Amino acid sequence: MNKLSQIYYNTQGLLGLKKDDILLASFPKSGITWLRFFLFQLLNLAETNGQPVSWENLDETLPELGQNNLFKPWPYISMPRFVKTHKNYLPFFRKCRSILLVRDPRDVMVSFYCYQKAKIQGGFSGTFSQFIRHKKFGLLAWCKHFTSWRDHYTILIKYEDLIEDDVRVFGSIIAQLNICVDPKNIKTAAENARFSKMREMENKNGTSKPQGFFRPDFRFTRKGVPGDWQNYFTANDLLFYEKYIKKIY
What is the CATH number of the domain that holds 214? Predict the structure, then answer.
């Protein structure tokens, strides 16, 4: 997307955002795709009679701020529209309810590093230690994102809690949002949105990114397990991490 198109979509995204929309906020590679797939599966069970599941129709159904046309009418009645964003909090967002998804920043850094390294163009070419110190991608950017949202979210979800019991956490989200859903559908949607299902779908259909965006061996559904940071962080990296984390916790 060129700069002119990005300005257009950012502008119309803010103007098209409605007060009954629910923002899905996260720093990149924190697990927001998992939450979106759950919501998509839940909507699928309630209204679409089993439409094919793919990254493409996920993005078409559950839009992203700055990427999709938010003036497009929301045709569903079983739940409000959920809008994804990786942006830092903006005062304009206060009219909407929001879900903030957070993940251990160390694991976020690893996943985001692998994502950026896999890009054919416009990615990151340095070492992991350089990445976590990068102003745009690294721990400082994560901290700025988290602190911007910290006092403004409606619901906070931890990725690690989803790993432990996704059905319980997803059910809690639906209850807190006062969305009327058959409990059986919550369980089924959670099962259909798990990592193994997403990996199976990616292996079959790829992602919504165009061919040539990533290296051929890259998988968006990389590992999804907590603690992978231990394979990447040096002692000095951990000292750098702790310096930033102490400032916000």
Answer: 3.40.50.300
